[in-house]
Write a structure and sequence with these properties.
three-stranded antiparallel β-sheet; alpha+beta
């Protein structure tokens, strides 16, 4: 219970530190260690940094060995279900799983 990685990844998906909105109202994403301006229509396109938390969750929660040792109690279940609102066809199509 000390190192609950799936629950630690959830805040990275909800409030990603690699995406920001500037004071002028434009969006920027961290790409290749530099902030790059992103047009609003491209905000749903994943960068490699944005895909990592999703891949971590997929690999941890879908691996049989991990599931057998990771009990789902109400707090963990509620935490993981909070990211359902971010799952959409555009996101799923970009993930290599």
């Amino acid at each position: 219970d000390t190192h609950d990685v799936p629950c630690l990844v959830i805040p990275l998906i909800e409030n990603p530190p690699w995406t920001r909105r500037t004071e002028r109202g434009t969006w920027e994403k961290l790409k290749d260690h530099k902030w790059a301006q992103v047009p609003p229509q491209d905000l749903l396109l994943l960068t490699p940094l944005e895909a990592q938390p999703w891949l971590v969750l997929f690999n941890l929660l879908c691996e049989g060995e991990v599931r057998s040792r990771y009990p789902f109690h109400s707090f963990r279940k509620d935490s993981i279900l909070r990211i359902r609102k971010y799952l959409n066809p555009t996101l799923v199509d970009q993930l290599p799983v």
